[in-house]
Amino acid sequence: MRNQIVAGNWKMNNTTSETEKLLNELEKQTLNKSVKVYVAPAFTQLSQAVRQLEGTPIKVAAQNMNAAASGAHTGEISASMLQGVGVHTVILGHSERRSLYSETNDSLKDKVATALNAEMELIFCFGEELEQRKENNHFEVVRAQLAVLFELPEKAWDQIILAYEPVWAIGTGETASPEQAQEMHAFIRKEIEENYNSSLAEKVVILYGGSVKPSNAQEIFSMKDVDGGLIGGASLKASDFAAIVNAF
Ligand code: 13P
Question: 248 pLDDT exceeds 80?
Fold first, then answer.
């Protein structure tokens, strides 16, 4: 059986004291032990979160990373810097990075390669915009975004978690229907099968992200090819995030 994963992407939220409070509240929640849980605070809160979550099963992920090992990249963070504070998972290709900070399939290729070489686990995000869905281009867009990964050797997929996040569902309150999520996840698995083989396709964890909340998580997670969620807004409240983890 594939891993079930729920990851909270905090985006640019939570100062030091807010992080401490949220993690304290999260530690008090009873969480389904069969679900792997991650939180992804901002860079400045990573080491704090790692320290506070030591001894718990909750893992800490970063929200981004630079492709270069070091050097003249003002304001950027490298893989070894993340690992130095005990972070071994990174979210790459989030739609906000693509749309607001000009990340492209090409630039992501380098980040993916760096993360893999550094033996980090990565949560690779992708998904179509509203116009692209309206024009019925969503499968083509996702195929092109995934092509970045399809040049990798099969072994690399041990380190990759996929997160399908339709841009029109992020932070909008509008969720893809469970059927829309399932349809896309099944398409993604088929793509993996065509580029590799069916056993890899069956193994890869595919998360859904976009307005997942306690009220809709169960329905979405019950879909056969949906292995969990990447949660934005609802991950900022411990009881909501716990309810989503426990929706499996
Ligand atoms: P929301 O859950 O706030 O829609 O955000 C989803 C997301 O972008 C997670 O990475």
Answer: yes
The tally of CA atoms less than 13 A away on the side-chain side of residue 20 is: 3
Which domains are present in the chain?
A: 4-15+27-41+51-63+75-245 (3.20.20.70)
Token pair for residue 226? 């949906």
On whether the CB atoms of residues 229 and 209 are closer than 8 A, the answer is yes
Residue 171: pLDDT band (50, 70, 90) is: confident
Tokens 């995030």 -> residue: 241
pLDDT at 93: 97
Ligand 1 within 6 A of 4 CB? no
Across the chain, what does the average pLDDT equal?
97
Stated as kind and residue range, the H or E segment containing 163 is: strand 160-164
As a whole number of angstroms, the distance between CA 89 and CA 9 comes to 12
Q: How many residues does the chain have?
A: 248
C-beta of 170 in contact with ligand 1 (< 6 A): yes
**The one catalytic residue among 94, 103, 185, 191:** 94
Residue pLDDT, tens place only, 147-166: 999 999 999 999 999 999 99
In angstroms, what CA-CA distances link 232 with 60, 112, 163?
15, 22, 12
Q: How far is the C-alpha of 55 from the C-alpha of 244, rounded, in Å?
A: 22
Known catalytic residue: 165? Answer: yes
Instruction: Report the separation in Å between the CA atom of 71 and the middle of ligand 1, taken as the mean of its atom positions.
Output: 32
State whether the beta carbon of 212 lies less than 6 angstroms from ligand 1.
yes
Q: Is 179 tagged catalytic? A: no
